[in-house]
Amino acid sequence: METLSKKEVQQVHDGFHSAYYDTILQLRVLEAVKSILEKHKDLHILVTGHSMGGALASFCALDLAMNLGVRNLQMITFGQPRIGNPAFAAFFNLLVPHTIRMTHEHDIVPHWPPYFTLLGPRTYHHFAREVWITSIALGILKFEFEKICDASGEDPFCSRSVVGDSISDHLNYLGVPLGAAV
Question: Which residues in 61-88 are b (16+ Cβ under 10 Å) and which e?
Answer without folding.
Answer: bbbbbeeeebeebebbbbbbbbbbbbbb
